[in-house]
Amino acid sequence: MVEFESYRANLEVADLTPTVDFLCKILDFALEVHEPEMGLALVRRDGIGLAVVRTSHPAVNETTAGYIGVTDVDALHAHCLAQGVDIVTGLTEHPWGLRDFVIRIPGGHRLAFGQRSANTGG
Which domains does the chain have, with CATH numbers? Predict the structure, then answer.
């Protein structure tokens, strides 16, 4: 059986710099590849990879570009609040057992961060 080992969301933007700076400075992603002439940057944190791709007509999902599971959603939420991050959906406890929130990053994309909650009802 073939195993899928990774997932990398592609985030289309008009300008690489603000998005890459935000991901690295605010969310502590590490820059793996930076090819501004090609319009590409790859960033990684732990097991999560994101590609930031420059395009003349960037597209942004109406919901979220991805859902990133974390080990301490409350701490990350507090960090994002302290950094003045644009939180578009506050910390929410869902009846299906997830606790999460959604941010908007430079370039307009939205990323959700969450974890399984103690309340696993539903």
Answer: 8-116 (3.10.180.10)
